[in-house]
Amino acid sequence: xxxxxxxxxxxxxxxxxxxxxxxxxxxxxxxxxxxxxxxxxxxxxxxxxxxxxxxxxxxxxxxxxxxxxxxxxxxxxxxxxxxxxxxxxxxxxxxxxxxxxxxxxxxxxxxxxxxxxxxxxxxxxxxxxxxxxxxxxxxxxxxxxxxxxxxxxxxxxxxxxxxxxxxxxxxxxxxxxxxxxxxxxxxxxxxxxxxxxxxxxxxxxxxxxxxxxxxxxxxxxxxxxxxxxxxxxxxxxxxxxxxxxxxxxxxxxxxxxxxxxxxxxxxxxxxxx
Length: 273
Fold this sequence. Notes:
Oligomer: single chain
Radius of gyration: 31 Å
Number of strands: 18
């Protein structure tokens, strides 16, 4: 077999028999010789904007007694729960590492990751785990997914933009969970004044409907109450657990979904043809 080189169709081509050894067809990359290193860069994925859905339910069973000596009665009950939510969000924030050398338009890098602060609670029942290897150098060409769950994604970008090498955190939180309010359902608000079996309730939010991320089955985030009263005395409404009433659940959110990473970066700038 013979070897050859030459220019044809606007390309420089080197062949070894039928095998193409090198060609300028496509994109050529030339790396610069200097290794750049950046230590302990702090990247933060913030706790998304918080809200809640306050869910309250009331019901009653009306008991009729034919004997005039035995009063009719209401068996009244209620329950309340706080569903803590996060609002839709598109977030991006970056760190400028350095100005790119003249003509450089690509960076072949490696990163070493360490999550130094993790979310305090599960997100919709799942832990937001680190999806990348921690504590070891891994190739990082452009972007990578850091954490993800139902309704949330967090990505890290190592890119040249605006003439600078930048480390960028991007976070996306999806739309609200369906049916979280504000709304009423069933017989509310006329549950208790009417002498018959009834059930209903309402959902209230602080400012806007959001994506449900956490709730609990114990006080002060979930409560129940019940009583039996004589209907001959025209008993009033029984709403002590409803939002704004005397024994309502707390709406103080104990969750914090911030994640903080320490990131080491190293690599070489390059130029593409």
